[in-house]
Amino acid sequence: MVDVREGKDQRKLINDLSSLLQDGASLGIQVEGLPLVEVELKKASCREKARTVYAARKSLDFIEQLLSEAVVLHIDEEKLFAEITEILSTARCWEKRASSILASETQLYDLKDLVRMSVNMDAVLPSLEGIENTISSAETWLQKSEPFLSVASSTASSPCSLLELHVLKDLVSQSKSLSVQLQEPMILETLLLNCERWQCDNHQLLQETEDLLDGAKIDDGMDITILSKIMDLITRVDSARKSGLSLGLNFDELPKLQTASLKLGWCCKTILLSSTSLSSELLEDVGKPSLQNIQQHLKEGQTLKINPEEYYLGKRLVELQDTGLEWAKRARKVVTDSGALALEDVYELISEGENLPVHAEEELQALRARSMLHCVCRKPYNSRSMVSCSQCGEWYHTYCVKLHWKPKAYVCSACCPVTPQIDAPRSMEPETPSLNHRRTRKVATDAEIKDLRWQNRKRVKRTAKRSPQVHILPWFFT
Ligand SMILES: [Zn+2]
Ligand SMILES: [Zn+2]
User: Fold this and answer.
1) Of 273, 300, 330, at which residue does a domain stop?
2) 285 and 396 inside one domain
3) What is the ipTM of this complex?
């Protein structure tokens, strides 16, 4: 378009004309050709100025000024100026389009088109910088909004990372200053609206929970309607929490709702547990609460930072627990006393345990086993080696019936006084005597053994013939 050689020629021409003009002026006389040289110099300078348009982008004002100079000098028809006129007209055209796009509902793709077109323009476009900034802020906004947009469009109930509400609020307010038309701000506005509505509903729900929990504190379990109220509120709280999670934002209310639901559940269970021990009018056939259940329940209350003493029925549960634990402590002591406590007292303890307002099944079972006396020594089961009579089912300590090994089958003296041992080997290997071995042990006479059979039948009702409820005992012996 513009070649370098031509440029050098132009500069040489300007130099020559300038010195010619100086020379003419120094003559001190009127020279006829001098104005002509002056005009030629102006033309050459104008052309030289025109060439700078190609070297670096110039402002539209500069180009306009240049072209009007060319018109005055009658050189505007020259190819160089015709090309520059074309540059100006394209640039003006671009500017016109830009201002019309910016004036109406500006779309991001229109702005991007303008920027793409501007790459081929040889002039500084006044609106370009603003447009580039608009695009950049819109894109930054879209990028930041991305996670919220995907949360708003997705149907997933629990997104992996929870987003912050204040960020959403910021994005919605920033979207007001975006100078482009986007669908996305509307989506975020709807999301924010839903969030705020959800928060408002929850505020009410949490207040309701507080009121109901206060009511539960003075509840004495006589009015069953409180249960249905609590159940209904739990359902509503849980459903609110679920819809909050589906919004995908990190709400302060979410953990509050979870705690509310757990506390209401705790109250519900407190009523159920204590009602069964208070009276059977409310809930028939439920039976006494177990000590284990009450302990577990009070522990759950602790993790929820609930003080059971603040609740009428909670206090009742603590009392039940204390009563149960006190009895269970005594029961455990007796279970491991190796028969020290008289059988009558054991029976009394069992009856006391059966009449407690709480159910301590494990201890009761262990005490019942403890009330079964075995062998010729009339002692409860202990960890010593025992053998069962294959006929009467009675259990004997091997050391009490003088067995130094455990036979495959054994018939006791009471059942078969003549042949007390079956399968007994003629000779047996000597065993290392235990520490207790040296103690003189009272060995039952045959008459005592006969007597024992009847004693056992009268005193203890045996349900299991083979095992003296050994399966529940190891817990007490460990
Ligand atoms: Zn014994
Ligand atoms: Zn027997």
Assistant:
1) 330
2) no
3) 0.95
